[in-house]
TrEMBL record:
<dbReference type="InterPro" id="IPR010982">
    <property type="entry name" value="Lambda_DNA-bd_dom_sf"/>
</dbReference>
<dbReference type="InterPro" id="IPR043917">
    <property type="entry name" value="DUF5753"/>
</dbReference>
<dbReference type="Pfam" id="PF13560">
    <property type="entry name" value="HTH_31"/>
</dbReference>
<dbReference type="Pfam" id="PF19054">
    <property type="entry name" value="DUF5753"/>
</dbReference>
<dbReference type="InterPro" id="IPR001387">
    <property type="entry name" value="Cro/C1-type_HTH"/>
</dbReference>
<protein>
    <submittedName>
        <fullName>Transcriptional regulator</fullName>
    </submittedName>
</protein>
<feature type="domain" description="HTH cro/C1-type">
    <location>
        <begin position="20"/>
        <end position="62"/>
    </location>
</feature>
Length: 284
């Protein structure tokens, strides 16, 4: 059964909204009365209670003061901040530049021991060549109407980040849909270099590279959105509008189950290399 990875973020927001609404009702206040005490328009109260607007720290403190429950403020603030951090829009992430976005993940990657990556769209960043990365970043910048003056620098930063694949203390399992090998990103030379790199990195002792064939007769799992599992603590899901960070253990377990189903359908070793070589030949 398919599910939306953004559901955990929205559910977290709604949990905060429900608690705030409950405090208002326990205090015997109407939406208009609470708004008056907080010093804002009643429509803001309605938006917060319906999880359409995330409350700020100040909003929560005013709300709790208005319902005479100041002791509830700190817990709600932490819960609200966690909910908002789960869902971060791409346009906010790239506002500081594409290179800054790449650099921000370096330390996190170094602290992660077990990487599980499934991609149904493009070659994962940790396996990208500089030419392929530049082409991917160009497409992303164009789509989000962002400046492209730091793309070359961002591509190099992505290469620096990818060195973690060669550092001790980490292990990697990459699953790619065969269609990823066929989507030409950049020119033919850049794509050929990228596919050749997959042959090289797939031979590393700490790397397991699986390809899910398009011709698989029976699929135990249909293609899903691209996602990364870091150890057993975080899942990052890539959507068109945002990256979603999933931290709920039950949801992480669901992604792990999905990953294992996809993993069982993939081919490895000589069979995976044959599919990559076939994609290289198709470029010509």
């Amino acid at each position: 059964m398919s599910f939306s990875p953004s559901s955990s973020a929205q559910a977290a927001r709604e949990t905060v909204a429900v608690r705030l609404r409950g405090l208002r009702k326990e205090a015997g206040l109407s939406i208009v009365e609470l708004a008056s005490r907080c010093g804002w328009h009643y429509s803001k109260t309605s938006r917060i209670e319906n999880a359409l607007t995330g409350p700020s720290t100040t909003d929560i403190r005013r709300w709790c003061a208005a319902v005479q429950a100041p002791d509830q403020a700190q817990g709600l603030i932490v819960q609200s901040l966690n909910a908002e951090s789960m869902y971060r829009e791409w346009r906010h992430q790239v506002r500081s530049g594409l290179k800054h976005l790449q650099d921000g993940l370096v330390q996190f990657y170094r602290e992660t021991e077990w990487f599980r990556v499934y991609s149904s769209t493009v070659v994962p960043g940790l396996l990208q060549t500089e030419g392929y990365a530049a082409a991917v970043l160009t497409i992303a910048a164009r789509f989000h109407d962002r400046p492209r003056d730091d793309i070359a620098e961002a591509a190099r930063a992505r290469m620096d980040r990818s060195r973690v694949v060669h550092e001790p203390g980490h292990r990697f399992v990459f699953l790619l849909e065969e269609s990823v090998l066929r989507f030409q990103i950049g020119d033919a030379d850049a794509m050929a270099a990228q596919l050749g790199h997959l042959l090289t990195v797939g031979a590393l002792p700490t790397v397991s590279l699986g390809i899910v064939p398009m011709a698989a007769r029976e699929r135990a799992q249909w293609p899903e959105e691209t996602f990364h599992i870091y150890d057993d603590t975080l899942v990052s899901v890539e959507l068109v509008s945002a990256s979603v960070n999933v931290t709920q253990p039950s949801e992480i377990a669901l992604y792990s189950k999905t990953f294992e189903r996809l993993r069982s359908m993939a081919v490895y070793g000589a069979d995976a290399r044959a599919l990559i070589v076939k994609a290289i030949d198709a470029l010509h």
